[in-house]
Amino acid sequence: MDYKTVKYYDDYIIIEEVKNFKLEHIFECGQIFRFWEIEENDFIVIAFGKLIEVKEDGNNVIIYNTTQEDFNNIWLRYFDLSRDYSIIKEELSKDPLLKQSIEFGYGVRVLNQDPFEMLLSFIISARNNIPSIKKTVNKISTKWGKEINYKGKIYYAFPSIDEIKDASLEDIQETGASFRSKYIVDTIKNVYNASINEVGNPGINEECSYDKYDLNYIRNLSDDECHNALQEFKGVGSKVADCIMLFSMEKTSAFPVDVWVKRAMIHFYGAEDSSLNKIRIFGRNKFGKLAGFAQQYLFYYARENKISVD
Description:
Endonuclease Iii, domain 2; alpha+beta; two-stranded antiparallel ribbon; 3 domains; Endonuclease III, domain 1; six-stranded antiparallel beta sheet; single chain; TATA-Binding Protein
């Protein structure tokens, strides 16, 4: 694990001697949309219906507005703190080209987020920029999510399936989801029906079965089966499926390819300037089970350094 010990207090905890951890690196590599920077190394984060303030203090990390129970049940896994990233870095750094990206983004970690939130968020992400994605996700949270008051300011949690199940197409369109609105409404319907139907009980006929939309079921599939299953949702293609898998289903062989990763792969590896899917396959074959970690290092390096391909 990547910390020495945890000290618990009434409304906060201190994680001592944390390594391979930097909030800026974690939050700026395209995997999370619900965070706010208060000041340098001090952020508000909302996940799993909870709000925390997380702050770096030397080699320690302080999490305010939390309890021992929530840390052990949510935040320990959320920040992937039981995993030793030194082992991952050592293995991936055997590749001298990737080593440069790892040293630059030394504090990157892959977050373990809520699958339903990631499913909707990355449907919204398709052909969209990060500020617009954040804006739409926050509007959805404000309209349907639970209100959270912290230090005199109102925030909103991302809604559960029960809270958003009755959203209409017009409601979703008002959040700025644009052409993706119909995909979101369809996805909400399918996830809700899966949640109220017993897995393995198709009802009258196989067409009535919502098993294939059950996120817990999908999460427990093999990596390739999971990737295919997620694409049963409208608006989910290969790249979006990889993002959902990697950031909420612990499928670390996933290798999402966007414009920055494509540029990085061409820049570092001379990968053929071809389809994103071909680069995805190239990345998975090259990095194997650690492909998702490699992708995050490459994404952060490429975007922060504004890599271009002539």
